[in-house]
Amino acid sequence: METKRIYLMLPVILGLVGLMALPGCNGETTSNKALETSLAMIQQKVDPTLLMTIQQSAQPEQPLDLLIRTRGTIDATQRAALEQRGARIGSVMGDVLTASVPARAVAGIADLEFVVHIEISKQQRLR
Prior knowledge:
The chain is α+β, with helices and mostly antiparallel strands. Strands 2-3-1-4 form a four-stranded antiparallel β-sheet. α1 packs across α2 and α1 packs across α3. The longest helix is centred in the first third of the chain and has 20 residues, at 2-21. The protein contains five helices and four strands.
């Protein structure tokens, strides 16, 4: 059962790795080791529900509301790096922030070393 789930997620992961490579296309090929590292990083940092949402999205520019956990409170340089990669930052609460991010930009944000985890935000109802 778990093996089947991995095979279902493989196209999503490979697609995200491909999206990461697009902005820097200059004719050079990416080494297999770098590709494996990127793939492992995405698997560790991006929630599977978010990966499936990206795969099902027909529009790569569709903004997704995300929760992003970082290594400590972000500074101005880290904020700029997130915004440069397409994040529109909302609230910042310690090491967690909300952001609206185009589906195509999630892999680039996961590539940032200070980003620990990314998941799609969920609607909560007060009781």
